[in-house]
Write a structure and sequence with these properties.
14% helix; 5-stranded mixed beta sheet; alpha+beta; 24 strands
Amino acid sequence: MRALPLVLSCVAVAVGFQHYQSEIPNGDRVHGADGIKSPGVGHVRSSGGGARNAFGTDFAAAGRKWTEELCRKDSDGDGASNGQELGDPDCKWKKGEIPQFDKGITHPGEVEQCNPARKPETGSTCASFVAPQGAEVKDLTFQSFAVPTADTSYIKQSMELPPDMDLLRFEIVNAQPTVVHHMILYACEKDVSGQFGQPTAVGKMPCKGIITAWAVGGGDLCMPDGVAMKSVQHMLLEIHYDNPQGKTGLLDSSGFRVTYTQSTGSRQVAGWMWVGAKLKSVTVPPQRDHFVVQATCEPFNEKLPAEGVTVFAHLEHMHQLGRKMWTGKLRQEAGVLTESELQCNDAYDFDLQEIKLFADTLTVKPSDELRVTCVYESSEKTVVTKGGDASEDEMCIAFLLYYPAVNNARCLSNNVKLDVGGNIGNHSCGCPLPATEIPTPRWMLPVHAIFMVIGWGLFLPAGSLASRLRGAVG
């Protein structure tokens, strides 16, 4: 009978968590940075109970109710308000209602423990932007498109710009902020207007290059002074609509307003560096809480200028199983090999893809190796997920926006490790990178074999060495 009070206490705590979850938008959808569901959103321990985190303290101070003041606070100091993290960016949600968004939910109470002084990434560099004389502006938007009433829709339409223009600014045009969740403008190798001349959900994505991307909470994108992106003639705009409330009668004309000018040759051209795993090298088994994939790219060497290139923004790309991604930069200096964090997102969400600009620019040198780590969660899958272009497939690619652009700055590597062990999947951005094996350059492998043979010859009798070699071959 002594166990009965303890059981009743546990039941009461569990019921209490469920009650408080219903007091905040999407309270039952919050996961921590480790990918584990957090029923105790207001507590340091994800399962609840014990000490409160910053959000829990603010929630208690608000009378354990969702108020506008609590919504607009940034309890964990990560640069996003509690409302933005919980799917109520406009702070209009009331208990019992369906939140504005139910995708891309992040934790409002987790604070970075490893490096609180780490400079945050910024969503825009447009505060000081001034369009040059003679610049033109064109809207690449849908035109009064009837938003579907479905919970989630991905709609695509072809767009065009004059080729070889200097693209300087991408301004967000969001005509329906209650349902527009993210937008991506793709570069296409050919004209796709025959299939996508009008907005449609039909058809697979035919374009692979990315020009710009935006998601809820993001801002406009402006190129640094003296830098421009080059236009391509054929493009495709994809808009993701998140409409959990099934709103009807919405006409949307969202997209991007692009500022561009004739190229004078005076600006450095920005380009996208692709770093990650070749698609066929990615395989994620089902029923896994953590599955880690690492892809290592050899140095770009002579493809990059001797002084290196300047990286000023990045975009991560995995699909629906992706939870974390970071890129390590391996650099050899003064005989010491070090690895530093180049790019990181420990709260990745497929429905929150946007370009993020670094607070400070970074340099990639010709001799640097880049290693991309992707963490997946497949606990609800029953089949193996393979690498591929479709949303139900997976990817592991980091896109780095840099200048000056060079030809073929792409590495989709076959040097891929699957199911990397240890605690690497628990990495948080800004923390020291987990200790993992430093990749061995390919040219070292035959050298290593030669020294092994020499070593055997020095320390083993000749007859014994010959016997061992015959055994190894036979």
